[in-house]
Amino acid sequence: MDVTDNFGGRVLEARKRIKSYVLKTPLMHSSFISSMAPGSNTFMKLESEQTTGSFKLRGAFNKMCILVSEKKSKVITASSGNHGLACLEAAKTLGCDLTIYCRNGVDENKLKLLKDSGAKVVLHGIDCVDAENKARKDSVDYGVDFLSPYNDLDVIAGQDFFFKYCRYEILEDLPDVDCVLVPVGGGGLIGGIAGYIKTVKPSAQIIGCQPAMSKVMYECVKAGKILFEESKETLSDGTTGGIEEGSVTFPFCQRFVDDWIMVEEDDIEKAIIFMLEKHHKVVEGAAGVSIGAFMKNADRFKDKKVVIISCGANIGLSTLNMLINKHR
């Protein structure tokens, strides 16, 4: 059976499990960004305001709750930072022992946050997929469950749960949403969003946004198969890295994502500064990808009703200070 079929049941179950653990984040109308595209009505879903600073908390809690219900007490995961922080919060709350695998060179601010929060961290490889493969192998060798950052239907269902709330808020003010812009890494977030909204409003356009320096999912979808695509250094560390063979997110992206926008580093930077200047909100590079995609391509959203997903806020002070000085 196609993994994208009958997805709604998982989402409803996820809703029951995690609603007491996560925040209902704001859906904020932006007159500033709407004005860039005449006639547009644009909202930002501020999942960057979520506990632990990203949307990842939802999928982590959903999967961790399932494992706890199965009497599992030890978990291994892999992360570029945000998923690890989310899993750590869920593990502490639910009483699990957690080990987090990260690639060498992972964002220093996120690594410090993990260690300061008491995480057990193992560094391995140079790409996120290297850390994932090592974590998965060690989980088998040690007889411990592996919690994937994206390649898991229960994780995706947890991410989709947040969009159900988003959808309810949108339909109050924006009953005819035309476009949803979503940052994409491994595909867990856009898989959940697209898998649900396309069943409710098929005419809505789902647009995947990736940094030009790490556009792995886009290249995989274009090729029709999962392949290796080198990732270069990007401010959007939360979306960087390769994709596991057989990832369940791949068919979601193939089936439901209508279009893709690649975003240059300068446009990610400008989006972060824009949010700080105009909305007094701190967002990280991955959120800057979807916001920057709109800002750079505003003309295509004229007279459209748009939602931009701001997925995270975990950016280091030194990085933020560098960007402020650069774009002053």
Automatic annotation (TrEMBL):
InterPro entries hit by this protein: Ser/Thr_Dehydratase, Ser/Thr_deHydtase_PyrdxlP-BS, TrpB-like_PALP, TrpB-like_PALP_sf
A Pfam family of this chain: PALP
Catalytic activity: L-serine = pyruvate + NH4(+)
Domain Tryptophan synthase beta chain-like PALP, residue spans: 21-312
Keyword Lyase part of the UniProt annotation: yes
EC number, UniProt record: 4.3.1.17
PROSITE patterns in the record: DEHYDRATASE_SER_THR (PS00165)
Gene Ontology molecular function terms on file: L-serine ammonia-lyase activity; pyridoxal phosphate binding; threonine deaminase activity
BP GO terms, sorted: isoleucine biosynthetic process; L-serine catabolic process; L-threonine catabolic process
Domain of life: Eukaryota
Listed cofactors: pyridoxal 5'-phosphate
Keywords, sorted A to Z: Lyase, Pyridoxal phosphate
Principal EC category: lyase
This protein's name: L-serine ammonia-lyase
Species of provenance: Pinctada imbricata
